[in-house]
Design a protein that fits this description.
Blueprint: H1 7-15, E1 20-22, E2 25-27, E3 46-48, E4 51-53, E5 66-68, E6 71-73, E7 91-93, H2 114-124
Parallel strand pairs: 1-3, 2-4, 3-5, 4-6, 6-7
Length: 126
């Protein structure tokens, strides 16, 4: 497992075929352009115990991703593809999930919020 120290390093490692990352700590900084992950493709990535603060995944493809025991605070997932992703043990604070694609999203454990993971993503599309 690799621990990138920046979003730029994460994207470089992904481009080189790395898919498993542990204990990452990412925070948005207004003066660093590459901290925004809008429209990025990170399909199949596995994060363990990562921390995401004030990041934007708007319209990102996060299909088949694992976010095990991750912490999301002020993260924007609007229009993101979360199909087949697993958020087991994750917790959320002040995140946005407007218009996300959520078929077959998994969540197990009792750490939630951001309105109980938007009422467990509206009961997985009913």
């Amino acid at each position: 497992m690799t621990t990138p120290t920046s979003i730029g390093e994460l994207l470089d490692l992904y481009d080189r075929g790395e898919r498993t990352f542990a204990n990452c700590d990412f925070e948005f900084h207004e003066y660093i352009d590459n901290m925004i992950l809008d429209n990025c493709i990170l399909d199949g990535v596995k994060f363990n115990a990562a921390k995401f603060y004030k990041l934007s995944f708007c319209s990102a493809s996060l299909n088949n991703c694992v976010f095990k025991n991750c912490h999301f605070q002020n993260v924007d997932f609007r229009n993101a593809n979360l199909i087949n992703s697993d958020f087991t043990g994750a917790n959320f604070k002040d995140c946005r999930f407007d218009d996300v694609m959520v078929d077959r999203v998994q969540y197990f454990n009792n750490r939630l919020n951001t309105e109980d993971f938007i009422e467990y993503l509206s009961n997985i599309h009913r």
